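Table S2 (continued). Query chain:
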Amino acid sequence: MTRCAVMGTGSWGTAFAMVLADAGSEVTLWARRQELVDAVNTTHENPDYLPGVRLPDSVRATTDAAEALAGADFAVLVVPSQTLRDNLAAWTPLIEPQTVLVSLMKGIELGTAKRMSEVIDEVTKVGPERVAVVSGPNLAKEIANRQPAASVVACADEAVAKRLQAACHTPYFRPYTNTDVVGCELGGAVKNVIGLAVGMAAGMGLGDNTKATLITRGLAETTRLGEVLGADPHTFAGLAGMGDLVATCSSPLSRNNTFGMNLGRGMSLAETIAATRQTAEGVKSCESVLDLARRNGVDMPIVEAVVDVVHNGRPTQEVLQALMSRSAKAERR
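Corresponding output:
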């Protein structure tokens, strides 16, 4: 039987643990808090993030990272992206030679502008053939309710991607393989920022034309950055690109969309953070995405606008006017 460690017990980590278990794997969830571990092991439920959802009996939890990682074929990393490096520093001595490290995180590291797979490889030095990514339109609550969904499992080694595909393929979760790790990661990271922008527009009372414009031009920005970094542009037309972007920008289950909506309604950053229980990755990653774009000479005006609102305190209406008054140009530029 395939053994999987899921390092993190937020809503997406818990939902993916369910997927792995339903696909036939033995799953150990790692959590920081003993009370959450006790709840999972005694009631088969994560009351903090997926209340009312019963987890399979083959999912158990522990606070001991060594216990979770022992004998794991796959170690699924699903902590806030800005905490990954510190967590990995502690976990690396516990990772066994056969373990493939799987990133479910959708962010870019502040300061280094590195993608999550780059951080994983840099800290653990396992090599790209042992680092995989899962990315797509994967709203955790819907998957936890076993509603049909698809995703992309990407790894530089196609054989490893196929192994991971088999480990998470269920009647309701359909994974596709890809070797374009760069494209899949960028699609997942940038869509959070565009989700904030679309949420802001909705909070301001703007309609579907505005939202469609932000989604489409946001995808164009993502593709521009991806091509410069060596991604396959076709990836951005797929599940890890357009698919994930549409889900994030259209669903009230999206944390980034909801966060942006509250900002658009006039709430301050501090008020919005206080009202948001879980991490909205785009809030921090918008800065690192913009940093990555500037390092590579790529123009990303929507991302820049989000940074202006979220971190520079610029009013949403003023930022919108600045975006709309940019010089006219051909669409494919």
